[in-house]
Design brief:
The protein has 109 residues and is α+β, with helices and mostly antiparallel strands. Helices cover 17% and strands 47% of the residues. The protein has a five-stranded antiparallel sheet, with no helix packed on it. A four-stranded antiparallel sheet has the order 6-5-8-9, with no helix packed on it. It is globular and about 30 Å long. The N and C termini lie far apart (45 Å).
Length: 109
């Protein structure tokens, strides 16, 4: 019984340790109303441009797009449908994979 309880507690502790660093992503996408022309452009397609600013990924979309952001380990950080315009997602320091339609790129925040 004691071994089972220790095993269960280890699984709970590991789950919390893995999920807590990603709690800072919970704020989600937010619209941007300022000029983003000075930000580093990472990737561009006909309908979307992905840019990076300190602590954020910024997406400029000319039509509604479905976007997914993953950690480098493959964990989903965000899976959203973004409206036309400029949106940004706050991210912790690290490397991420961003997928918008057929456009996939790696970003460093």
């Amino acid at each position: 019984m004691y071994r089972r309880l220790c095993g269960f507690m280890a699984v709970v502790a590991l789950t919390l340790a893995v999920s807590l660093p990603f709690s800072s992503f919970a704020k989600g996408w937010e619209p941007v109303r300022t000029d983003v022309s000075g930000l580093n452009s990472v990737a561009r397609d006909n309908d979307v441009e992905i840019r990076v600013s300190p602590g954020h990924v910024v997406v400029v979309a000319s039509q509604p797009v479905q976007i997914k952001v993953f950690t480098i380990l493959g964990q989903v950080v965000s899976s959203e449908s973004l409206p036309v315009g400029i949106s940004r997602l706050p991210l912790s320091h690290g490397v991420y994979i961003v997928k918008v339609g057929d456009l996939t790129c790696k970003i460093a925040v």
